[in-house]
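Our preliminary data section would be incomplete without showing what the modeling component actually yields. Below, a chain of 1016 amino acids is followed by its predicted structure, encoded as tokens that our downstream tools consume directly.
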Amino acid sequence: MKLTSIKYRFIVAINLFVVCLLGAVSLGTILFFWHTTQQQIGEQQVSLVSSIAQGIDGKEVIARESLQNVANVATPEVVFQPETSRKWLLNRTGIYTTFSRGLMVLDKDGVLISSVPEAPDAYRKPYVHLAEIRNGIGSGMPSTSPPLLLAGSEKPVVIMTAPIRSEDGIVIGFLCGALDLLGEHSLLEVLGITTIGETGYMYAFTSDRVMISHPDPTRVMARDVPPGVNKMYDKAIEGFEGFGETVNTKGKRYLTTFIRLSGTGWILASNYPIEEAYRPLIVFQNFFFLGIFLVLLFSVWMAGKLVGGILGPLERFTSELKSMAATGVKKLSPLKGRVQDELFLLWTTFNTLFDMIDATEYELLQTNIQLTESVKTANDLALQAESASLMKGQFLANMSHEIRTPMNGIMGFLELLRMTDPTTEQKAFIREATSASEVLLYLINDILDFSKIEAGKLKMETHEFRIRTVIEDAVSLHVPKTVEKNLALHVMIKASVPEMVLGDPSRLRQILNNLVGNAVKFTEKGEVAVVVDCVEQDGDVALLQFEVRDTGIGISQEQAQNLFQSFSQADASTTRKYGGTGLGLVISKELVKMMDGNIWVESRPGEGSTFRFHVCMKIGSRKAVQSYGFEALQNVNALVVDDNVSNRKIVAAYLEGIAQRVFEAEDAVGAMAVMQAKAETDEAIGIALIDFQMPGMSGYDLATELQAASWARDVKLVLLSSAVLPGGAREAEKIGFSGYLSKPVRRDDLVQCMAMVLGLKGPEESSQIVTKLTVHESLDERKPKILLAEDNEMNRKIVISLLKSHNLTCDVAVNGREAYQAVLDRNYDMVFMDCQMPVMDGYESTRNIRKAEGSERHTVIIAMTANAMEGDRQKCLDAGMDDYISKPIEFPVLMNAIDATMKLKGPSLVPPARFDAYMRDFIDQSGLEEEIARELYADFFDYLTGLFDGMESAIRGEDYGKLKGLAHQLKGSSGNLKIKSVYERAIQLEDAAKATDRDQCEKLLLQIRQQVLENP
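Predicted structure:
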């Protein structure tokens, strides 16, 4: 029988089952008997030792009471007259048996008066030097001493002391008796004659570990079991009573019982050798396992017999199948001598099956041939489909680039044309052409995004961004359309919304663009409102709710069910009237889903619609940069004047926690009443934010009235207008306004404008009216240094003209290599990099720039490309670019990118006036023109900001190698520019870095910082 045969495995399985079953039963039985036997023996030992302990306690009580009874009959003469005392002791024969080691009479001070037997002369002195006697005398009560050895004795005794009292109860002396612990008639005599089993024994010891009784005389009165040697011994000293296993110093195991004597506190113990205690159990265990082994042998024999009878025919069946495979015969031989059981049916069924196989073999062969041909055809079709998909993707990418490039030219030149002061008719043409271009661009974007969704390749990116900026930028794109339709547009971002989050800002902006664009498109009068709130926060993850509400045409519940399906709008008439592909909401739904959220709509026909969506975003680790500290406005009272409740509440909410108090008025009359009532009080209005269009009296009219009122002359006025008024800022300034902002108002713009109007922050030209443009320019007073890398002449003209319209200039590179060289030659604030250029494309140019900059410098590089397919944005970021702008270029997006870059760079250092002398020396020695020299000095001080940050970081991290390198750079640049004071300090800082002197490094860096500030 082979080890791999079914029969063998069957037998093994049965026997394994039997072994496991018997093993479990055996183990359980043995464990039960072991536990029961151990418990019984232990309880017997406890009972025996407890009985002996009670006997010893009784003898000790009798001895103590006998001594006290004798002491009670003693007269004063026994204490004070030695001869009388000795005779009296000789007559006390009744207690000699108990106190066989002698009796003594002591006076109250412990001086020996008499003793039997008579003590040597050496002991005729006070006995108080014996601690055992002194303790009894000191208490004046009956007492028993610890075990001790008397002079000339090897056996321990205890001395019992009983007070002798006068007739009035005063202690006048003591009767002491010495009681043997070992030997005949001793207190512990029973321990020596008691046996435990054959070789077991008993012993006693004190709580001080002194052995007072033991079969080994050498251990008596010795402390030979130190702490830690025997854990049960240690537990008994601590108070344990009972039994357990112990091991002596020779490694022999005992079942040991401990019982404490109640009178003396001594501990009695019995040692019962384990091999004797468990001998019956071991014999039982051996016989038990022998029986189990015999049962196992029998089960193996029976399993073989039973399995052989069952599997014998199966082995024959297997053998015949192998023979059939070798000979080609397709028939089993008849199974004779077998009843018609399951095996017989199996035998005959196989013969029938072989007959069926013969009949179907040809048919299977034909089917296999057809299947092979079908697989080949399917593979060919799959290759064609894959090739078609690849061609489709390439076609969409090429078409995206080819369409967007001319679209960029069309929309750019339309924007430039609009700036040329065209006629009214030309303005209408420009507006219609721009609108058509935007529709075409949105159509292209929707189709591309929808194709990504269908292919399952739409992916989300993760960046840390300021969510308020993204929301306000998205909404601001729709301001011109709302002004054109005379609609109110509100944005409310509640205080619970975190400033910085992690997510995909471009996709969030796309969702808002779709929803706000639809709201504006389907609303003819009334308002469109965007409300953002944080409805839940779990750790560092925030659940944000976005609400886009309008007062437009609305839709029915039936129509809302199909609203998020492809190419679907409310009805065909809507499509014809308003246009659109019906893909915006489908794309928005997919984007929301990818942000772990959901989107839905609530609407009724004629009553407007409310679209809401939730998204989960992780809260960012860094805080948003605020250009103006809010604390500057906390002592100012503000008044918000607006007939629109939503506008009023939004502005008031933005000022909550910023201004000292915020008051509201719904019209000009109410505003004048509030200001007049609050004048000359602690709540006097410091600044008023006034709407332009109000019923009854406009914002201009109210400003005129306030200018004439004596109680309002010190109030600063800021005009908030929903309409873009030609020359509005200049007109508002003439009337008396100090600030002018268009709606919807951004919170940061509002707060910064208020700070500048109140003179808390801002440029020196405080008399100039503060507008949104003024606010943005004040964020960085110097103009950014921009490089445009673009090979297309038309695109270059458009960007240059658009920048020029805002008093900005840029340098130009026509290929990637020129861009790379330009960045190395000059310290640009930002680079707009086209991706597809000759000689060297934008990706390679960016990688080379990043490699050359290292960790000491970082130029902001923003991609400008007509490619808008899957992966294009990520490809730009992977190359080292900071952001991505798709063509056609939207001018607000371009300006927002510039604005964001200059905010991040922060204010630059300006060369102080006292450095003019250094610059004059530099001009004289170099021969350069003053304009070039001033530019070099400006670049140097601009470079100092990042250099100081690097030095501080190196000092904090104690990276003196890096600090030495930065100090060396500062030494070289300041020396070349002849700035002697900075140059000398840089030399000292480099030396301090070499010496790793942190305190000196911090001191020198502070001195250098003070040198380059205007007021050190």
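The first strand starts at residue 103 and ends at 107. Residues 121-129, 570-576, 762-767, 777-781 have pLDDT under 50 and may be disordered. Preliminary results of this kind motivate Aim 1 of the renewal.
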